[in-house]
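Problem: given the chain below (97 residues), write out its structure.
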Amino acid sequence: MTERETLLLREFKDKLEQMIGLHQKMKAESQLLKEEKKRLNEQLNLLTISNRDLAKKVEDLRFAKTLVGANEDSHEAKIKINRLVREIDKCISLLNK
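Solution.
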C-alpha cells in the first residue's frame, strides 16, 4: 500500500469513528427525548383529567348557586333543570333500547 493510500485509509477511519461517535450521541439524545416526551404526555393526561374534573365542579357550583339564589334568577335555574331533565330522559331512552 502506498503512503497516499495509507493516509486516505487513516482519514477514512478517523471520519468513520467520528460518525460512529456522533451516531451514539444522537441515539442517546433521542432516547432522552423519547423519555421526556412520555413524561410530558403523562403529565398532559393528568392535567387534562384534572381540568375536566375542575370544569365539572365549576358547573356544579354554578348550578348550586343558581338553585340557592333561585329568587334572583329563577329563569336560569329553570333552564338548567330542564336541561338536566332532558339529559335524564335521553339516558332513560337509551337504557330502554
